[in-house]
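Narrative summary of target 7.
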Amino acid sequence: GIDMKSCQAFLVVVACLTTMCLVSHGQAAGVHNCSVLVYGSTPAGLCAAIAAARQLKDTQYRVCVLSPHAHVGGMVTGGLGKTDTGGARGEALIGGIAGEFFREVGRLYGKSEAVFLFEPSIASKAFQNLLEAANVTIAIQQHVAGVEKAGTGSVSRVTSLTTSSGDVYSSEVFIDATYEGDLMALADVAYTVGREGMEQYNESLAGRQEYSPLNQFYVAVDPVNATSHKPLHFVSDADPGAAGQADKKVSAYNLRLCLTRNTSNHVEITEPTGYNPDDWELVRRYAKSPPVNDKPGIYHFLGIGEIPNGKSDTNNAGPMSTDFIGASWTYPEASPAERQQIIIDHYLYTHQLLWFLGHDPEINATIREQMLQYGLCADEHPFNEWYEPHWPPQLYVREARRMVGPYVFTEASARGSGSTGRGVNSIGCGSYNFDAHNVQRYPCHPGTINCVKSSSETRRNPCCRSASGAGESHPSSAGSGFAVLDEGDVEVNPGPFEIPYDVLLPDIDQAANMLVPGAVSASHIGFSCLRLEPQWMIVGHSAGTAAALVVKSETKSPVQQLDRSLLHAELAKEKQILEVRRL
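Modeled conformation, tokenized:
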């Protein structure tokens, strides 16, 4: 590999723009022999590469890292600066290379402790420092196009992958660290997309939700166009399915926006391409409803999380926000060209939403004035391969494919007695919510839905039945007789849990030398508490260590047969936290 500090001249622009000095292939397509190949430069992939490189230091073995895109660092360097830790309890469970990363962020801010609120550029610098120290180089814009496999009996191995530019990479162990599970899918590893029904794994939270009480409309907003009698833009007319039922629908994606009110670091949000004010009638009606108009503020539409130096990590908040509900369903299995269009559609949706909030004359002036105070950050995200500079370079792919291995992490895996005490099988811990975002938005008839009332749920959608079971009377904002419902949001905390090595493992007859720390083997609900970046980083680190141990072993046994006690001992040396600490 080439040292990260000696980038080729033709790469200087890309390297500087992504804030990391990266290596790409300038020579003709060739054959590259690796010992461990990490596909995907997500935080999980970077932690996997660092762990493997440290294990294989001063040996003849080589770690290769391929990034399908120019951006490196996934969501952590792509705008998600308000880390989903689960509070002090969750922070105490973040060890290993993930813990090192957050301490390096702290060091860059002049602090001696870990810091979990940070700017994207600082996250990039922290990763760059860890990668350089481990002598890890990354080949960018290397899209996997094909996979070769070989096998004897019931054991099948991936022997090489080919990129769209014609490069061929062989490796002893492959790690698919992408959010999408692209390498895994090309290797014919079993996977699924969408939501299981409640009965498949006996999960109380699975399937189509009868009612999602958070990020919900708590007021009657008519979702129907009075002229065409069809649903408004951003409202689906597809069958929502029955409560508890499985479907192939996917949680909403969004962009985590780095915004500022600092006029000296402020890039104005200009009018976006294709903006049509008629498309935003649903948002307009919601903005004019009493809950919003009586207490106007941008907080009804944007979750503005403060991060250092006058910047924000701006996330989805409320029923009509930056989550582009319904636009993610085809993304997991889409072609590269189709994915590119879906990604651009998300940029246009977000850009148009911000423009609408700042300029639509029919909504409250307070909302407009507050929105216009914000701009993009001039010193963040100077390069964007999908859209305009200063917009986040990474779409928040919360969930795409999920591997179906011999072991599947489910709701029960994270709850109760079975969630701890995993012994040598544990590769890390978590404590964040089951956190699934809304999946669909559709019209509903007031007073027709069974909404479980809890002490924490004081506000209800107009489509909920009353406690007595009778329909409730909610005047609609217009005359169709329908209200609108967002569905799919799940936010329930399972308590702290341990993550087993098995979530990384495909069937041995599908891929005996592949580990999957991104699209792990989990149900939709189980995945929703593993998909937070600290957990992905923890699992990525453990995958990198496991891969290196396989490479160094005399038997080169399948990853499924790795000595768990040996892995456990190595991870403990590497400061990975392997059992739940009762705080």
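Residues 336-359 form the longest helix (24 residues).
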